[in-house]
């Protein structure tokens, strides 16, 4: 039996409440600011609760400042990255998990993939800048797609390896007994079984890709190729900061991956924490 | 590999002894090697490019030997950046680990309702996928002069009379920048530690309670024992991230005031893309890579990562 001590539990709940408050207030303040009109913004003291909420800042950011184009660039880059990363990851993890192979090779590939995760981006962005300029992909979305696929490959490989090795070998063997070829067994049996895993990986890779800033900052120069976070940063360093528009752009930047992730949250956790956490 | 290939591998092992590689084995290497080869080369090229430019004047001039390295290492700002990175890590890592573990312990011990647990869980995942640039914007709205919420709240509470210029004095800027990291990554530590606490066997906890262990003893003697490998892992992952941190600092302070929050990655950015010292930047990139490889191989020996 657990002896409950009311005083201790009260303190615990209070502490959790304080954590929650400190954690949620900045988010509240961001949303609050994003809904303020220009006039309310210049009130002598900031209003703690927005008085006349308006969507004008959002419209102004998306249309007048052309962030809609950045949004489109980001969606394009991230979707292509997800496809490419998953395709490469599948081509690497399928033989590793489903075909006979020496243990040494298997371990080497997985460790090599993991080590890619720890490359410091700032160190590789210097040579990438040179390469991308040399091959004429500077300020082109494809340059970002290639770099992002590489950056996200470790996640793709480790997540798919997890999902693939959870499917028992017997399932495929049953298909072979029924006369299926390897390709058919892969398409009709294995792929549907790992579909939830693929979805989870896709969401996580999309979110990481959406958040990436350093490579986007350095490898792009104009609105034709810049991604959303680069645009958001541009609003911050201007001479005069328009708080409500900056906040609105921030809300959009934060909301996109959050919405995606909440939709797929059942599948997402194992991947996000690098498999440290396994749901029971 | 969980339970894969028991019968099949046995069969193939027997066959291999007779005929060399079996057809599935050949298929495996035919699928794997081309993809792996291409990726490997794509990873290798930038390293070679960096290595070559680090040996040339301005990155593409005549070869000058180790001159770029000498220049990179004799720039006093490098040591300022390393020091700032160290301070940042020393603020951020202990705070995140202590706060995250404490919160996990609190929720584990005192929240019974599955709904509340699930709610906390969802909130805790959120910051992991939020763009650091967005978090930087958020922090800007908290710390900025004139509009910043923090000064406003402190004034409302009567704690300060005049605004504190958080971002324009070195200590305040470092604390602001570090607080953003703590805000974003404490929930990650919480998630890992909370999951770890669920693996502590109930019997040992109950036995300790029967023996009259206090709240604190129960943590120190039992739960900490099960959390230790996870603590190491979290420390490793967070350290790796701290050494890469760039986005939110770039948005919040841009490395300033002066060089107060110019961590290693911001310093490298400045050398390479503000001053366009390509040679020196390439040399720095190589040095950072080598340094990190040494660091990781050292630290990763301590890790309980499953290797297969």
Structural summary, described in words:
The complex is a heterodimer of chains A (280) and B (308). Chain A is an all-alpha fold and 280 residues long. Chain A contains 14 helices and no strands. The radius of gyration of chain A is 24 Å and the shape is globular. Chain B has 308 residues and is an all-alpha fold. In chain B, 75% of the residues lie in helices and 0% in strands. Chain B has 13 helices and no strands. Chain B is globular and about 75 Å long. The interface between A and B is large, with 104 and 101 residues.
Give me some keywords for this one.
heterodimer, A: 280 residues, mainly alpha, 14 helices, B: 308 residues, disordered N terminus
> How helical, in percent, are the residues of chain A?
over 70%
Termini of chain B, distance in Å?
A: 6 Å
Mean pLDDT of chain A: 87
Q: State the major sheet of chain A.
A: none
Number of strands of chain A: 0
| Total count of helical runs of at least 4 residues of chain A | 14
> So how many helices of chain B?
13
What portion of the residues of chain A fall into strands of 2 or more residues?
A: under 5%
Low-confidence stretches of chain B: 1-5
- Overall radius of gyration of chain A: 24 Å
Q: Tell me the total number of β-strands of chain B.
A: 0
List the secondary-structure elements of chain A in sequence, H or E: HHHHHHHHHHHHHH
Major β-sheet annotation of chain B:
none
Name the poorly predicted regions of chain A: 274-280
* Structure classification of chain B: mainly alpha
Q: Assign an overall shape of chain A.
A: globular
Report, as a whole number of angstroms, the end-to-end distance of chain A.
24 Å
Identify the overall geometry of chain B: globular
């Amino acid at each position: 039996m657990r002896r409950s001590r009311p005083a201790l539990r009260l303190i615990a709940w209070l502490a959790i409440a304080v954590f929650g408050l400190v954690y949620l207030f900045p988010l509240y303040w961001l949303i609050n600011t994003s809904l303020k009109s220009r006039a309310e913004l210049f009130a002598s003291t900031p209003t703690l609760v927005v008085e006349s909420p308006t969507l004008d800042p959002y419209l102004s950011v998306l249309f007048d400042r052309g962030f809609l184009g950045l949004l489109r660039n980001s969606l394009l880059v991230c979707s292509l990255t997800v496809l490419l990363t998953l395709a490469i990851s599948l081509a690497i993890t399928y033989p590793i998990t489903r075909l006979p192979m020496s243990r040494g090779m298997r371990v080497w590939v997985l460790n090599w993939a993991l080590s890619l995760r720890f490359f410091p981006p700032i160190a590789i962005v210097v040579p990438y800048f040179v390469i991308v300029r040399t091959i004429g992909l500077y300020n082109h979305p494809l340059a970002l797609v290639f770099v992002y696929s590489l950056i996200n490959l470790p996640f793709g490989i480790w997540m798919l390896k997890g999902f693939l090795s959870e499917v028992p070998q017997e399932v495929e063997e049953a298909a072979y007994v029924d006369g299926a070829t390897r390709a058919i067994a892969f398409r009709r049996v294995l792929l549907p079984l790992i579909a939830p895993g693929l979805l989870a990986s896709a969401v996580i890779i999309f979110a990481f890709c959406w958040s990436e800033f350093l490579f986007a900052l350095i490898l792009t120069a104009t609105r034709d190729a810049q991604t959303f976070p680069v645009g958001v940063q541009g609003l911050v360093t201007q001479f005069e900061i328009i708080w409500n528009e900056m906040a609105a752009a921030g809300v959009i930047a934060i909301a996109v991956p959050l919405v995606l992730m909440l939709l797929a949250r059942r599948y997402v956790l194992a991947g996000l924490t690098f498999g440290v956490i396994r749901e029971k | 590999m969980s339970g894969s290939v028991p019968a099949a591998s046995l069969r193939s092992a027997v066959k291999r002894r007779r005929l060399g590689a079996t057809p599935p084995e050949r298929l495996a290497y035919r699928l794997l090697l081309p993809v792996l080869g291409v990726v490997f080369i794509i990873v290798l090229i930038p390293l070679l490019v960096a290595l070559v430019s680090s040996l040339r004047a301005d990155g593409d001039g005549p070869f000058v030997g180790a001159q770029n390295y000498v220049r990179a290492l004799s720039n006093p700002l490098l040591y300022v950046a390393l020091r700032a990175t160290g301070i940042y890590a020393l603020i951020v890592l202990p705070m995140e680990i202590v706060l995250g573990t404490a919160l996990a312990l609190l929720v584990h011990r005192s929240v019974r309702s599955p709904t509340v647990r699930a709610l906390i869980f969802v909130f805790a995942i959120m910051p992991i996928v939020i763009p650091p640039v967005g978090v930087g914007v958020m922090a800007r709205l908290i710390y900025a002069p004139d509009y910043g919420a923090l000064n406003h709240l402190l004034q409302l509470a009567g704690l300060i009379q005049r605004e504190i210029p958080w971002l324009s004095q070195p200590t305040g800027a470092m604390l602001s920048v570090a607080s953003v990291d703590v805000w974003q990554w404490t929930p990650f530590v919480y998630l890992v530690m909370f999951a770890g606490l669920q693996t502590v066997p109930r019997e040992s906890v109950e036995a300790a309670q029967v023996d009259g262990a206090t709240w604190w003893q129960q943590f120190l003697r039992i739960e900490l024992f099960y959390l230790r490998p996870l603590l190491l892992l979290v420390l490793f992952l967070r350290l790796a991230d701290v050494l890469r941190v760039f986005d939110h600092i770039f948005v919040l302070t841009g490395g300033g005031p002066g060089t107060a929050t110019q961590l290693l990655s911001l310093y490298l950015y400045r050398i390479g893309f503000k001053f366009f010292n390509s040679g020196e930047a390439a040399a720095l990139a190589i040095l950072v890579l080598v340094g990190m490889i040494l660091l990781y191989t050292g630290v990763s020996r301590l890790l309980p990562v499953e290797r297969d």
